[in-house]
Design a protein that fits this description.
By secondary structure, the protein is of the alpha/beta class. The protein folds into 2 domains: about 140 residues, Response regulator (Rossmann fold); about 140 residues, 3-Layer(aba) Sandwich (Rossmann fold), CATH 3.40.50. About 35% of the residues lie in helices and about 20% in strands. The strands form 2 sheets. The protein has a 7-stranded mixed beta sheet, sandwiched between helices. Strands 2-1-3-4-5-11 form a 6-stranded parallel beta sheet. α1 crosses α2, α2 packs across α9 and α6 packs parallel to α7. The longest helix has 16 residues.
């Protein structure tokens, strides 16, 4: 365990005073599993929330939340998909591909995105690749179509023409990629568990490296597998955003249905960049949280 993760995990054990205006038992957390990234995000959540919050491990048993809980914060799709009471507020994060329909619910539902907003993400791609004018986005996620218009508007504001390509099956990827030759300066894979697999990542990497077209992603892991760069939100930033949403709900406020963490985490892959003819500037290198050789 690295020092940063050890500090985050230790933070979950520290006693906190309840935040102003919130009862000590008014919030609870449910984790899809009790370790790794979920615990890192939960530890950051609790530190930002400012009170000791009990958590439940959904991988071991169905969470039985106390009657006093008014807001639950769910980490991961398994945690987010539990059958919570209709009157309970639900803040959920780290669940790409999962959508909690607010219809029929009295409580509020708030999703914490895994990307720091389309505008910030595209601006960072443009900073990495100033010549970027045409970006192709591949997606399989059922509810991504609802975001396409917002994504295109964010691209237009930054001089980037966005074309979105719906993938029906991973086997279609090679053909869809080839059809984009001459029509894109780079391509992006947003957080999409339906499209991310060892097979699809190999296809994307080989196409990118073989045709010198930068491949962008949203997570550190995909940059490690061959994307030139990834712009996403760190688990700590996601946890802090979830805490802010929970406190806002408990204060009787109405936060946005989707919240984008304000700070991006930049990961770079030097080998992938070289294959695609990209040269990272000293400024970009200084901004990077991770640089794979």
């Amino acid at each position: 365990m690295n020092f940063k993760l050890l500090c985050c995990a230790s933070a979950a054990l520290l006693p906190f005073a309840p935040p102003a205006g919130a009862a000590a038992d008014s919030a609870a957390a449910v984790l899809s599993s009790g370790g790794g990234a979920y615990m890192e995000a939960f530890s950051a959540f609790q530190a930002a929330y400012g009170a000791s919050v009990k958590y439940y491990d959904a991988s071991k048993e169905r969470p039985e939340l106390p009657a006093g809980v008014k807001t639950v914060v769910a980490f991961g799709a398994k945690a987010a998909s539990q059958a919570y009471p209709a009157g309970m507020n639900v803040v959920y994060c780290m669940a790409p591909g999962f959508f909690l329909n607010p219809k029929g619910r009295e409580g509020r539902t708030v999703k914490i995105s895994m990307i720091p907003g389309f505008g910030n993400t595209l601006a960072k791609f443009k900073e990495i690749q100033p010549s970027l004018k045409r970006l192709r986005v591949f997606w399989l996620l059922p509810d991504f179509a609802a975001d396409a218009e917002e994504l295109r508007a964010a691209g237009a504001a930054r001089g980037i023409e966005i074309s979105t390509v719906k993938v029906e099956a991973i086997a279609e990827l090679p053909g869809l990629l080839r059809r984009g030759l001459g029509e894109m300066d780079a391509f992006w894979l947003p957080p999409d568990p339906f499209l991310i697999s060892p097979e699809s990542l190999m296809m994307l990497r080989e196409f990118s490296w073989g045709n010198s077209i930068p491949f962008y992603a949203s997570t550190k892991g995909i940059a490690r597998e061959g994307a030139a760069a990834a712009v996403g939100a760190s688990f700590a930033e996601i946890g802090a955003a979830a805490a802010a949403a929970a406190k806002s709900l408990q204060a009787g406020e109405t936060p946005a249905a989707t919240i984008y963490p304000g700070k991006e985490e930049l990961t770079l892959n030097a080998t992938a960049a070289k294959k695609c003819g990209l040269e990272f500037t000293p400024e970009i290198l200084r901004e990077a949280s991770y640089l794979f050789p």
